[in-house]
Amino acid sequence: MSPAGPVEFEALPLLSRTPREWGRAVLADPISLLIDHAFLEKKAATNALELLTRWPSDWVEGWVEAITAVAKDEVAHLAQVTRLLMRKGGRLDRFHKNPYANALRQLVRKGEPVEILDRLLIAALIEVRSCDRFSVLAAASEDVELAAFYRALTASEAGHYRVFLDLARKFTEPSELDARWRQMLAAEQRILADQEPGPRIHSGVPGQSRGAGGWESAIIG
Ligand SMILES: [Fe+2]
Ligand SMILES: [Fe+2]
Q1: Distance (Å) from CA 100 to ligand 1 centroid
Q2: Which of 59, 178, 194 is nearest to 113 (CA)?
Q3: What integer pLDDT is reported at residue 214 of this predicted model?
């Protein structure tokens, strides 16, 4: 990866790509974007720790090491994003809503081992979409500090996406994993397209989202 250029995210498996316009629109409200982002990092850390004791009945080699490494990274990201937020005069809210992640979690099937497989694939999806979004933010941001921050996160979240998929591979037949991953990617594309635009990491694209509304005209107009 070139330190100055966008990450080569053509390799990402996502079925839709985020246009540069989305980045320019959400960066019009950087404080709200950083607040949303901080909550996502917090959730990523707690989600990793929840997964820690949820391995399939057969011990999965390297599980604890991989999951704790992700949790540690996410806590570090949370500290970084909170520091940036405070330096720009913002503060964390008490509450946060994430309709995108909530809709993805509805896809989780019950019972072992499919529940764990689905949770890992959803974690991978959120990481890979975040990677796509951070890459766009790195390219669209005119704030040098923010652009560097988003660029570093693009690489980190790409690593996490691979960690979750690799863990899933350890207890799932390749054909089964491939079929479920394709279903999840298709669902993710639909769920993202349903999101309202707004200054959030997983928001809809202004003018494209089915939920497009007043925010679009307020930011773009
Ligand atoms: Fe993160
Ligand atoms: Fe991550």
Answers
A1: 16
A2: 59
A3: 37
Instruction: State the average pLDDT over residues 9-18.
Output: 82
Residues 147-180 have pLDDT tens digits of 999 999 999 999 999 999 999 999 999 999 999 9
The pTM (predicted TM-score) of the whole model is 0.89
CA of 69 to the centre of ligand 2 (A): 10
The DSSP code sequence of 67-96 is HHHHHHHHHHHHHHHHHHHHHTT----S--
Report how far ligand 2's centroid is from the alpha carbon of 221 (Å). Answer: 33
For the chain, which domains are there?
26-220 (1.20.1260.10)
Ligand with the closest atom to the CA of 128: 2
In this structure, which residues have their CB less than 5 angstroms from ion ligand 2? Answer: 44, 127, 157, 160
| Residue 25 alpha carbon to ligand 2 centre in Å | 23
Beta carbons of 85 and 34 less than 8 angstroms apart: yes
Quick one: average pLDDT of 189-215? Answer: 83
Distance from residue 101's CA to the centre of ligand 2 (Å): 14
Within 10 angstroms of residue 52's Cβ, the number of other Cβ atoms is: 15
Q: Which ligand is nearest to the CA of 149?
A: 1
DSSP 143: -
DSSP state of 97: -
Across the chain, mean pLDDT equals 89
The stretch 184-212 carries a mean pLDDT of 90
Confirm if 216 and 210 have CB atoms less than 8 A apart: no
Tell me which residue of 179, 181, 176 sits closest to 162, measured CA to CA.
181
Ligand nearest to the CA of 75: 1
